[in-house]
UniProtKB/TrEMBL annotation:
It comes from the Bacteria. Gene3D superfamilies: 1.20.1260.10. Residues 1-23 form the signal peptide. Keywords: Signal. InterPro entries: DUF4142 (IPR025419), Ferritin-like (IPR012347). This is DUF4142 domain-containing protein. Residues 50-183 form the DUF4142 domain.
Amino acid sequence: MTPMTPKLTLAIILLTWSTAAYAQESQPAQQLTPATTPGQAATTLALDPAGFAREAAAANAFEILSSEVALRRGQSPEVKAFAQTMINDHRRAQMDLQNAAKSDNVSLPEDLSMEQKQTLLALEQAEVSQFDSAYLSAQMKAHDQAIQLLGSYSVDGPPGGLKTYATAHYPALRTHMVRAQSLTSP
């Protein structure tokens, strides 16, 4: 079997994300809700405090790291401004998450998933002319996942600092998604 080239890997990632992005584009902002009901999400997402903290920390770390790449490689001033907002907002969110985890006696690892690491690599290797589109697609996918995670935990998670964090940061994620979508629209 022939190994996949970085361009082919990026093309596969973009195709996967563009399908999800297209489906999201047809929904008005007020309809951006988790794809599953909270009860369904509980079976597919780690909703125990440690699992939630791990997933939320990785989501924030990915947003920060991918946006730092966008500041270096992005072409559009609007994309770079969006990236700076993501860095600022997700650094604050990560600090809030650390405090919430501490109040719930949960350790907070910041390891990225394999998928997140691969996406970062693909962004680093993306052709300059395709970077902004690839970055925005990655942002929409990451925010969709984070919206599902925080939405589910804010409903089904046990009371405590982490549930308060999920409830407080959920609206900002929806706003980020709408802004990313607006940057991809002509």
